[in-house]
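Q: I'm writing up a methods section and want to include an example of the input and output format. Could you take the sequence below and give the corresponding predicted structure tokens, formatted cleanly so I can copy it straight into the document?
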Amino acid sequence: MASAGRLALVLVASTISTSKSQYYQQQTRSLSGTPATDGNNVTNAEIYRIITQQLLDGFAIWRVKMFNDRVFVEKTRRSYWLGDRYYRMDNDYYWKSRDTCAYRMNETERRNLVYEDGIPIYDIIYQ
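A: Here is the clean output for your methods example:
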């Protein structure tokens, strides 16, 4: 009976630890299959502010068209695109030889970020 009690305790502890790990979902993924990390939260917030400032903080909320969403940030030396619809068509800035990653925005971050046809944008693509 004591061993059954210990077994139940081990099962409960392992269930708690696995359910805890399921709550965290990595927001960044590599589109090339290489390892990716979420990086620094402060830097992520700053980049988000930089690339959405013109779209969301003006007198009117803009919608994303074909190429009006690419932003180059000197601090990180990366190009950023809102959404995954058009970035491959950017002949001047998208390089197939460079690793491409996608950052999945949460509901708060992607609020009011839509393409001109009203389809929501879920990712920030960067390389």
